[in-house]
Design a protein that fits this description.
Layout lengths: L2 H36 L3 H13 L4 H8 L3 H13 L3 E4 L9 E4 L1 H21 L5 H17 L7
Antiparallel strand pairs: 1-2
Helix pairs in contact: 2-4, 2-5, 3-4
């Protein structure tokens, strides 16, 4: 395909980037507005959700997985730990880097957040097809891979 033929796709990908920023900021703001319900910040919510989905992880692993600085993830983990939402457990693969895992209280908090968010998303997604969502995920995943080399620390 010639460069001229690819230009419209490139223009459309620019539109995707133009939408992702405001979408991300509004989603963060919505989480912050709803935070009093469970008392979770956006950062703590991200840590709890990652542990919910992926199981126990180290702070550096969480940082890499979410393209966040290790220091930021450590602060969010410390906040979650102070509130009894996560705990450290020994890491058989590394003596100095403990695994972080959800407590029962942490699982209940993130499960409540996810249930509330899914109720909202059901309203939004009612007229979208699975193929449309698959295409969206494919495009966003490709764009994310394009930026894999960006250092977040």
């Amino acid at each position: 395909m010639s460069e001229a033929a690819r230009q419209p796709v490139t223009d459309r990908l620019t539109e995707v980037f133009d939408l992702v920023g405001p979408l991300h900021r509004r989603a963060q703001r919505k989480v912050e507005q709803d935070a009093p319900i469970e008392g979770l910040s956006v950062g703590v919510r991200a840590v709890l959700n990652m542990l919910r989905d992926l199981g126990p992880m180290t702070v550096p692993q969480m940082g890499r997985a979410q393209a966040l600085s290790r220091q930021f993830v450590q602060r969010m983990t410390n906040d979650a730990m102070a509130r009894g939402l996560v705990e450290t457990v020994p890491n058989p693969a590394h003596k100095r880097s403990s695994l972080i895992r959800l407590t029962g209280k942490g699982r209940a908090a993130i499960d409540a957040v996810i249930a509330r968010e899914r109720a909202v998303l059901r309203q939004v997604g009612a007229d979208l097809t699975e193929a449309e969502v698959d295409a969206c995920l494919r495009v966003l995943s490709r764009l994310l891979r394009l930026l894999d080399d960006v250092d977040v620390d």
